[in-house]
Design a protein that fits this description.
184 residues; mainly alpha; 8 helices
Length: 184
Amino acid sequence: RKDTYIMKKVISGNSNLFMSIVEIVIGILLLINPVGFTSGIIIAFGIAMMLMGLGQIIKYFTTEAEEAAEGGKLSKGILFTVLGGFCAFKSGWFIATFPVITILYGVLILVAGVSKLQKAVDMARVKQNYWFIALIGALLTLVFAILILANPFASTAVLWSFIGITLIVEAVMDVVTFIFAKKS
């Protein structure tokens, strides 16, 4: 039972470390070319949706009629293909609706900050060393969320660059927390 708990803790820690590295890479890419990177992600997502949609349509026509009628594969396939096409060929629309996307991102960062604050308080309560590093990371995440939600930036590129910086700083703090949590 204790071995299972330790294994889950190791897997959870390694996946958190992996996610932090992914955040750092995304942050760097956002700094290099924020609008281009965002457009690329939207286009890639659109292509993936189109492929899933086409797969559903093909499955519909290659499945027995009775079974195919029950699964809704044709309607799902058409919907995914159309939505994917919109993302792939109209990615500029998403850039134009950036303020709404920014607010959603700010809310997600706020939720992450509250979660990190919980972790920092938990670490302090169980008297783990270096709990204050997790607290600093949580507070930075909350500050970044508030700044993003306040949206003081006029330019999409500047805001994406700011988001890239917040991702990098937040991820570096998570890596430092991960390293110091292992030492205690």
